[in-house]
Amino acid sequence: MDENTSISQAVNQYLDRLKAVGKSKQTVKAYHQGINRYLDILKQHEIDLQGSLDQLTVETYDWMLSSLQDTSPSTRKLYTSAVTAFFEYLSAMEMIQINFHQIASLRKSAAPTSPPRLPQFSKENIQKVLDYAQTLKTSPYEDELDHLRNLRDCALLITLADTGLRIHEACKLTRGAMDFNEGRAIIIGKGNKEAVIRFTGRSLRVLREYIEARASLDGASGKPLHTLPIFMRHDRPLGKKSKYNQYQPLSTQTGRDVVNRRVRECLGPDAVGTITPHSFRHYFVTVVLNATNNMRIAQELARHSSITTTSRYAHLSNQELDQAYYEALEE
User: CA–CA separation, 218 vs 231, rounded Å?
Assistant: First the structure.
């Protein structure tokens, strides 16, 4: 243990170390916040931050955990991770000796025991939005770009519901990633993992209608067709530079805006926010479970890393239990 290093100096050395090993600014900032919270607790217990590191004990870690009981789970996890990593650094540098078995035990006992939040969405309202999406193909439009946006939004909503794609994954789809003959696409999904996405007949139909309607636009792009995004922005060309914006892929935020706009048109302004892009993914998992009654298949198609995540949807898909419940309890 380096008896000449104070607590404050050790904190600064640790944060400098995080920067030196290439941690992001966000990570350094977040860990700094967590360690500052720990330092505040030390001061409340009259620990001198200019004093020696032998004051950093398992007991002080427990003080920290106790102070976080009324904070959100995410804040509690962040701050405890920051302080634990700080202790691990000090131990590796032989600046303190600490019992990490006790640390792990305290951290485990302080972890929240509340059940995971269940997915909340209205299957009936999502179905209404999907039905409305189909009407966009024949809706009145101001000009050709407006017509393309209608076809695009129809294709986007049905694709989200029928494939389980996350909104950022859908926005990144390119024509080259799609195999319309096989009804599949190859994507790089969450965790940088390659995945095969399957498309229904109706999702392929609306995608074809959309892409066929923009054939002349795609041809005029001057780019190889396989590099073009499936879902384009279709901005109004206002000048030589901005006209090329319409060939850019939808951003994730614009994808969310599309959902909000069509939900508002279909269900009214009060429904905005009750259905998000991720709601269509919830809908997809529930439909798969209803049709297959197979948790493992639903997990694979939804690309959940853990079957525990998929199991949260089981309560939404067991129609036999629903029927038995209402027959037994409803008059």
Answer: 12
Which CATH number applies to 123-276?
A: 1.10.443.10
Alpha-carbon distance of 225 to 228, in angstroms, equals 5
Cα gap 130→155, rounded to integer Å: 10
Which fold, 7-110? DNA polymerase; domain 1 (1.10.150)
The fraction of the chain above a pLDDT of 70, given in percent, is 88
What are the sequence ranges of the domains in the chain? 7-110, 123-276
pLDDT in tens, 13-71: 999 998 888 888 888 888 999 999 999 999 999 899 999 998 999 999 999 888 887 77
**99 three-state secondary structure:** coil
Q: Are strands 184-188 and 194-198 parallel, antiparallel or unpaired?
A: antiparallel
- Quick one: how far is CA 78 from the chain centroid? 18
Q: Which 3 state secondary structure label does DSSP give 185?
A: strand
